């Protein structure tokens, strides 16, 4: 059997409007104006632009402020992608076809890698979102006041609310397609989105990645070599946290236990919301006595990200409301509007809280701190 395009993969990709047969193993370029949906080049510009912005910001934080966390987190996100994504695209390569099966397929975008399975914007998505969440939580002062563990839990919440606005919209606009015949991983689901993905990928992975990076770079002025190996270590170790967090629901895997799985993951997601809202509210109420400074990235990219996705949601609403039995007239599954709206409202609240914190800090600036000299590590 062709491990790059088995019958299931071929069926899913054809539902998106392309075939995985004869795909280039390295890279393919396409006209951005001839993609399956008009929202796709807009999404690419939003995410790839955000990743570049995040990299420039991270570099400045390292070189000008002596803080290696942002840059390490940026590259650790890419390392994490390199570990976690290939088994999802080609489970047969890794002997996982019987354990997880074919899970989903991305649609083809302007730049596509790895047999048309990996769009460039997905590579950019990981560092863009991890940086977005980390910077908002950092500006809120949670790392300084609450420490790495509590602040990383806040990152889990911030990633959840920003990620799901995107995640619940993607299938309807043909950004990707889930395999509905894979109950081991893709069930239970909230509308068209697997709840395992909502919890493990949208929260646990980014929280673990952030915690590992912060701890590995703690109190260190690092050189490029030190940042490199710490980025790789964090990216490789982060999936272990997903295995641990997924164990309670995984213990009841199987079609006959979907209600139990749904309840377990529902409780876990509720815990993400409760802890996250408490931490953000606590940061809102806290007096601004710390030395955390606001950043241009935290003030601009999160509202741009949320605003663009809100516009894309608005353009998708006519087809959403005309859908029958969860499927639009174009044959695409819809996401959960109520959960997306809830996440968008929470994301807007986090942006306002971070902006308030940054404004307060500008009114009461902390004295400048001497930069540490880089050490070889």
Give a brief rundown of this model.
This protein is mainly alpha-helical and 377 residues long. It contains eleven helices and seven strands.
Give structural notes.
The chain is mainly alpha-helical and 377 residues long. It has one domain (41-85, 121-171, 183-363). It has helices at residues 7-16, 39-63, 69-89, 120-139, 142-167, 183-186, 195-216, 224-250, 258-285, 296-321, 337-363, and strands at residues 27-29, 104-106, 111-113, 118-119, 176-178, 189-190, 193-194. The strands form 3 sheets. The protein has a 3-stranded antiparallel sheet with strand order 1-3-4. A hairpin with a 2-residue loop joins strand 6 and strand 7 (193-194). Helix 7 crosses helix 9. The longest helix has 28 residues, at 258-285.
List the main descriptive attributes of the protein structure presented here:
two-stranded antiparallel sheet, mainly alpha, 7 strands
Kindly report the average pLDDT value: 90
Which class of secondary structure composition applies to the elements? mainly alpha
Provide the low-confidence segments as ranges: 366-375
Which of globular, elongated, flat, extended, rod-shaped describes the shape? globular
Q: So how many helices? A: 11
- Give the topology string: H per helix, E per strand: HEHHEEEHHEHEEHHHHH
- Terminal-residue CA separation: 47 Å
Number-wise, the strands total 7
Residue share in helices? 55-70%
Residue share in β-strands: under 5%
* Domain count: 1
The largest beta-sheet arranges its strands as 1-3-4
Largest sheet at a glance? Answer: 3 strands, antiparallel
Determine Rg (CA atoms, Å): 21 Å
């Amino acid at each position: 059997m062709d491990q790059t395009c088995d019958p299931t993969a071929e069926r899913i990709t054809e539902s998106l409007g392309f075939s995985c047969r004869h795909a280039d193993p390295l890279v393919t370029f396409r006209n951005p104006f001839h993609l399956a949906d008009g929202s796709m080049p807009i999404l690419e510009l939003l995410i790839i632009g955000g990743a570049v912005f995040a990299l420039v910001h991270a570099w400045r934080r390292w070189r000008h402020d002596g803080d290696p966390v942002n840059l390490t987190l940026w590259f650790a996100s890419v390392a994490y992608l390199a570990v976690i994504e290939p088994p999802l695209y080609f489970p047969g390569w890794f002997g996982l076809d019987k354990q997880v099966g074919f899970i989903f397929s991305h649609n083809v975008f302007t730049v596509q890698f790895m047999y048309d399975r990996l769009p460039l914007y997905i590579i950019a998505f990981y560092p863009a979102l991890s940086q977005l969440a980390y910077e908002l939580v950092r500006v809120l002062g949670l790392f300084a006041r609450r420490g790495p563990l509590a602040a990383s839990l806040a990152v889990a919440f911030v990633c959840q609310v920003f990620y799901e606005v995107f995640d619940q919209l993607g299938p309807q606009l043909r950004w990707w397609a889930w395999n509905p015949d894979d109950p081991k991983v893709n069930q239970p689901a909230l509308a068209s989105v697997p709840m395992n993905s909502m919890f493990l990928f949208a929260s646990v992975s980014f929280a673990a990645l952030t915690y590992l990076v912060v701890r590995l770079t703690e109190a260190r002025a690092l050189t490029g070599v030190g940042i490199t190996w710490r980025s790789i270590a964090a990216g490789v170790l982060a999936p272990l946290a997903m295995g641990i967090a997924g164990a309670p629901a995984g213990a009841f895997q199987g079609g006959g236990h979907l209600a139990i799985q749904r309840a377990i993951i529902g409780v876990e997601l509720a815990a993400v919301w409760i802890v996250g809202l408490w931490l953000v509210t606590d940061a809102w109420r806290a007096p601004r006595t710390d030395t955390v400074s606001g950043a241009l990235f935290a003030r601009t990219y999160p509202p741009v990200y949320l605003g663009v996705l809100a516009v894309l949601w608005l353009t998708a609403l006519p087809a959403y409301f005309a859908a029958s039995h969860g499927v639009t007239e174009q044959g695409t599954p819809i996401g959960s509007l109520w959960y997306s709206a809830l996440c968008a409202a929470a994301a807007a609240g986090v942006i306002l809280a971070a902006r308030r914190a940054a404004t307060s800090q500008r009114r009461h600036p902390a004295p400048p701190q001497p930069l540490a000299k880089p050490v070889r590590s």
